[in-house]
Task: inverse folding
């Protein structure tokens, strides 16, 4: 399946991204591209979460881009302007299944981050902000159809409201990770807050499943703190959790920005391809794909995304197959 990517189909977001890709052999352009991509990724995740658990399709609302609960203080700033991720897009070296342990540079105050990365082509689909009463079942059915395992970064309060969907995720053999108890950025700024959020999440999930998921996986709402002045990545590691950001996405949470001359489906697919062209070229990084259970458009295009990745030579696994953390 092809997406019309001609000039008349370009939107400003993608055009800017594409323009930056042209001089990829230029060091400055590389850093700018990485910075821009990080900004897009963080902006997407930061705007993704909808507090209303009954609203499964968020794109038809008139809510602001970054929903904030009435009693919520300002969300964690993603700070894309301060630090460019020190990553350079380079072709994957081989398709060998051998693994190697690489060290990524961390912020001075952050935990040392390491991860064993297969040099084979493995894609890690991740779904944030669920469970969702309308979309989780559809997504699970599609994953079963393609015999694909994925990772669901679940919010505790949503699990409490959709316990059946959480059980379904577990029973179908997917990995369940913590995405905080209530997605409240204000509670996730300090070590104590992060610890409490995880504790509350564990209580909620254990109550529903009867046990905690076997692997301790975590994704920071809005992405991991880049400065990490409060050493939250270290706190997370001390709690036994592996943390995961992402390097590919379908921009579902920005679907309201879909240009008028494209359908939402076309735009999500084109966004996915553009992000894939970035993430798949990162050296020694697992291809981790961010999507959200809260968007019906993601369920609509999931089969296409799986087939696209298969056509690129990828197989699929859940993040519990990895050891260590990966942050951008
Ligand atoms: Zn989220």
Result:
């Amino acid at each position: 399946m092809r997406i019309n990517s001609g000039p008349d189909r370009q939107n400003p977001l993608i055009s800017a991204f594409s323009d930056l890709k042209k001089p990829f052999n230029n060091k400055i352009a590389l850093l700018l591209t990485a910075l821009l991509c990080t900004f897009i990724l963080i902006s997407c995740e930061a705007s993704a979460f909808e507090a209303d658990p009954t609203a499964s399709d968020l794109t038809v609302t008139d809510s602001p881009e970054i929903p904030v609960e009435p009693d919520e203080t300002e969300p964690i700033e993603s700070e894309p302007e301060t630090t460019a991720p020190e990553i350079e897009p380079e072709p994957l070296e081989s398709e060998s299944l051998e693994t190697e342990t690489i060290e990524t540079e961390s912020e001075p105050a952050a935990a040392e981050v390491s991860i064993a990365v297969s040099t084979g082509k493995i894609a890690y689909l991740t779904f944030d902000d669920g469970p969702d009463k309308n979309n989780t079942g559809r997504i699970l059915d599609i994953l079963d159809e393609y015999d694909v395992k994925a990772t669901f970064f679940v919010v505790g309060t949503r699990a409490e409201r959709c316990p059946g969907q959480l059980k379904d995720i577990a029973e179908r053999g997917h990995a369940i990770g913590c995405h905080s108890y209530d997605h409240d950025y204000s509670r996730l700024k300090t070590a104590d807050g992060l610890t409490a959020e995880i504790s509350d999440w564990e209580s909620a999930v254990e109550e529903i499943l009867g046990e905690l998921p076997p692997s301790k996986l975590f994704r920071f709402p809005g992405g991991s703190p880049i400065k990490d002045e409060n050493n939250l990545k270290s706190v997370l590691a001390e709690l036994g959790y592996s943390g995961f950001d992402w390097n590919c996405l379908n921009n579902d949470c920005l679907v309201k920005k879909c240009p008028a001359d494209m359908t939402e489906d076309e735009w999500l697919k084109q966004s996915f391809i553009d992000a894939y062209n970035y993430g798949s070229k990162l050296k020694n990084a697992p291809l981790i794909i961010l999507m959200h259970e809260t968007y019906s458009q993601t369920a609509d295009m999931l089969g296409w995304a799986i087939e696209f990745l298969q056509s690129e030579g990828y197989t699929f696994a859940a993040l519990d197959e990895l050891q260590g953390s990966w942050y951008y």
Summary: Confidence is low (pLDDT under 50) at residues 1-25, 50-113. Residues 7-51+99-321 form a domain with the TIM Barrel fold (CATH 3.20.20.370).
